[in-house]
Amino acid sequence: MTTTAVALEDTKVAFRLGDGRVYTAVEEAQLTVGQGEFVAIVGPTGCGKSTLLNVAAGLLKPAAGSVKVFDRPLASLNRDAGYLFQADALFPWKTAIDNVAIGLEIKGTPRPEALARAQKWLTSVGLGAFANRYPHMLSGGQRKRVALAQVLIRDPKILLMDEPFGPLDAQTRQVMGNLLLELWSADRKAVLFVTHDLEEAIALADRVVIMSAGPSSRIIGDWRVELARPRDIFEVRLDKEFHALHREIWSVLKDEVMKGYAQSTQAEAV
Amino acid sequence: MSRLTLLSLQLLVAVVAIVLWQVLSTVPVFGKILLPPFFFSNPVDVFSQIVKWFASGVIWKHLWITLWESILAFVIGSLGGVLVGFWFARQPLVAAVFDPYVKMVNALPRVVLAPIFALWLGLGIWSKVALGVTLVFFIVFFNVYQGVKEVSRTVLDNGRMLGMSEQQLMRHVYWPSALSWMFSSLHTSVGFAVVGAVVGEYLGSAAGLGYLIQQAEGVFDVAGVFAGMFVLSAFVLLIDMGVTMVERRLLVWRPTAADGRG
């Protein structure tokens, strides 16, 4: 793992507010994701972790610093990346199979071939029998599976995930986590996974990065997760090592969560 | 409630209304007929007028004219509405410049345009089509404009991240979104196309359902007026059923209120 897939160098992200003030979301973030590495970013609500992900995707321009993708500076959208959104991002007017096939079709793959490959991907996320359903006919978990297939069919080198399983219930999240690990282990893409769930982060990732409470949040910790792979999310949580690491990271994260909470209640009071 | 009981209750309303109308317009109550036939006619006369129209076949020509005017008004109005709606939504500056004028024209009661159109386009079908177009255009325009502007940010970003060019975004994201808004107002816009046609005919024409009603009114043939109204209602009802069928086909991907699953 010598090459870096994504490197954020002193990246600062700021927004101009409606009244002319400048709001700094993220201050000088320094983060690298190696090829084949699974990195999870954890932080309290509103710490700008999704913002950082959007910068890596090229959807947002940093106010200062640079973003490098495979050692090349990122000028516009990150074409090497697939993005799994937190909210529903499927095209509601397309069936499941059309939603998956579209990624190939826009690259000019002939439709029959795109459909055949989409069907394969739907099968590998466990939805082979749901090809002709529209998104509204699927459950939240099923929609996430379709979204995962939609992203993976393009075979991106980097996978950006913004609390992708956030809206799901606890059991479905674990099932989806295992599915993700299983698909990921096939070709080990570089993954940047944003979540507010520390357990999920440790269970999935090779590295866990902690961000401080916003505004002007920064990266305040970086832990390596040495748990053996392949992992099973249900079982890894019972591991002693898992608990030790969880306690260690939580001792840092806890303060930030309380800070973030205090700030958010203050903001509401104003 | 089962479908059958609902249907029979609905039928009952019609039967009661017609029987009341017939009785009150023919049988004196306390020595006085409550619905004088001169003003209210009676169901039997109205019905026989309708039968006469269909038996002699004169009605078909008028129905056909009105239908054709409605179709033309709908197609031209929708086309214009979609194009301009798209254009305005993608060019905020254009939208801002034209905004007061759009509002002004839309606030104008369209009936006052009828004489102008008759003057410009004559008494043939085109003056009626023009009136319908001014009604349909704004409904479709506002819906498409809204549809393009309110495309979900996430869906749009997803399209971009999947590698779509501006043109592909147009085809796969903006266009379906705008069309779905247009189709959701299909009932209203088709209805207004018919309104435009009939009102136009009523104000000056040589054929069509509006003409038929206007002619009957001109000679105080109340049965003829009512007969025209009934034929018109049935005509609109049929068109509406057709629209519902088209809508079911086109908007299958839309969640209905019945299956509001998260």
From TrEMBL, chain A:
ABC transporter domain: residues covered: 8-238
Signal peptide: none
Keyword Acetylation: no
Example of a GO MF term: ATP binding
Keywords from the named record: ATP-binding, Nucleotide-binding, Transport
Matching PROSITE patterns: ABC_TRANSPORTER_1, ABC_TRANSPORTER_2
Zinc found in the keyword field: no
One Pfam family cited in the UniProt record for this chain: ABC_tran
Family: Belongs to the ABC transporter superfamily.
Protein name: ABC transporter ATP-binding protein
Native source organism of the sequence: Bradyrhizobium iriomotense
TrEMBL record, chain B:
Compartment annotation: Cell membrane
Gene3D superfamilies on file: MetI-like
Alphabetized UniProt keyword annotations: Cell membrane, Membrane, Transmembrane, Transmembrane helix, Transport
Occurrences of domain ABC transmembrane type-1 (ranges): 63-247
Pfam families to which the protein is assigned, alphabetical: BPD_transp_1
Record membrane topology: Multi-pass membrane protein
Transmembrane segments: 70-89, 101-123, 129-145, 219-239
Membership in a protein family: Belongs to the binding-protein-dependent transport system permease family.
PANTHER family: ABC TRANSPORTER PERMEASE PROTEIN HI_0355-RELATED (PTHR30151:SF20), ALKANE SULFONATE ABC TRANSPORTER-RELATED, MEMBRANE SUBUNIT (PTHR30151)
Descriptive protein name: ABC transporter permease
Organism: Bradyrhizobium iriomotense
